[in-house]
Amino acid sequence: MTATAVILTIALSFSGLAALCLAMDRHHRAILRVPPSRLRARTLRVTGWAGLAASFAAAILTADWNFGPVQWLGSLTGAALILVGLVSYRPGWVRPAAILALPLAVAAALLA
To answer: What does the pLDDT look like over 19-30, one tens digit per residue?
Structure first.
């Protein structure tokens, strides 16, 4: 387990959880000030689950099956804590943070 692998899984987990958060009507209204359309909510749900699947795959590829699932659960916990803090205290920062996490994940993937 390297630092770049942890950054990769946390960034992908955060983006996936942020997309799932934005798929919920209440959080979407709080963050973007408009209700989500049905298509947007469905797209965010699919994108969120794809992000979580990508973070699981990245954890397995970087840490193998022995420690990969443990690393993935830890990254989910860390990403969820960051997301809860942002939604609670700075909801306007959720969308830019999730978008910023994607290039960070690509950079970490190239280094891992």
So the answer is: 999 999 999 999
